[in-house]
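In practice, a research group might receive sequence data for several interacting partners and want a quick structural hypothesis before committing to experiments. The following worked case mirrors that situation: the sequences arrive first, and a predicted assembly follows.
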Amino acid sequence: MDFDFTPVFDSAGYLLGGVGTTILLSLLSIILGGVIGLAVGLGRCYGSRPLALVLGFYVDTMRAIPVLVLLVWMYFAFPIASGINLPPFWAAVVALSLHSAAYVAEIFRAGIQSIRSGQTRAGLALGMSTSQLIRKIILPQAFIRMLPDFGSIISRTIKYTSIATVIAVPELMRRADTVATQSYRPIEVFTAAMVAYFVMTFPVTRVVDGVYRRVAHRGQS
Amino acid sequence: MNLDWSVVFSHWPLLAHGVLMTVLLTVLTMLIAIPGGIVLAAMRMSGSRVLSLVSVCFVEFFRNVPIILVVYWAFYVMPVLTDLSLPAFVTGLTALAMNNSAYNSETFRSGLNSIRKGQREAGLALGMSGPQTFFKIVLPQAWRRVLPVLASAWVSLFKDTSLVSVISVGELTYTAMLIRSQTFRVMEMITAMAVIYWLMGYPQAKLVDWINRRYGVSE
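A structural hypothesis for the assembly, expressed as tokens:
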């Protein structure tokens, strides 16, 4: 068994372009997923009962359906159902955001519920409105407590962007696959891609955990 | 837009077979990944630096690499390593099992570590032997913390089995996509696939919530 990594170096620029797309896809999905997730989480905690039920159904549905199925549905079925044609990249952004939003919403809900009710009562007793209470008392504390979970959701999202290869988004996984097929060196190319993914995801959880250790005391009440 | 849902019903034996393969993959992967996780966790906590380093590298590597890439990788590497042409099912199973063993090992390790040292010391002070303390004091408590995490790992695994469709393992996703390309009934087949996953996954997600309420420990 002999290994030849030259195809990896020959296509380095092409593969790095894939890394760029992976990072862009991850960033957009994390930001969008974070915003939707915050809205859904708040809606479930403070919204009316029907709203909370609908949002709960959304979250549980996302927990029940594979990302791959969601992606494929967004790309192939959604245009037929709605008449809106999404390019592969944006179909992937929408599907990944909808998926991670459900998990982010669960993190927010758990974080908000972990703040003792005395805090809420104290805020209300001081004459704060509900929105003031959420912005000034609940979220700052809950946010710190949620940091480790955010770290894992970010690394999860980066890993899940690779599934976008099935709808031909030119991210790292897709480009690695192309180079592997053309060079007949799949083991070397996929190994290099694994290292690249490791380098992208491993530091994320470490950095977030490191930050959490420094600020954890701010989340204690 | 004219939809013809009969295509879903006329292909139900194929879809049912796909569902069966998905369930089989999930069950077999967990059957391998639970002992696998225990072995990895035991290696990490064994006190031997070599064993612990091997375990850490394995676990951290597989936790930080996408499963779909591991699946592709196994598809090309396993024939070279073993000199056998293994069926795609076995390859997919191996990739999923390696990934899940890594996750389970962290679950077991953090579950055991969450039991305070005083518990073990109290057991030993009462004259119990090391194994007795482990099986009668540490394990029953750690179990309650491990079970909810293991249950959500189960649901994640159930969903991740869809990824082995990329190497043509005939589970639900692969089967549905195949029928889609043969019948050109894109909307119907993909929606049916999503609905079937939902019908199976939704009760599992609810079960996880129940296990969390029933066994979850909060401090």
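Before designing any experiment, note the following. Chain B touches chain A at residues 1, 60-61, 64-70, 72-73, 76-77, 80, 155, 159-163, 165-166, 173, 177, 180, 186-187, 190-191, 193-194, 197-198, 200-202, 204-206 (CB under 8 Å). DSSP finds nine helices and no strands in chain B.
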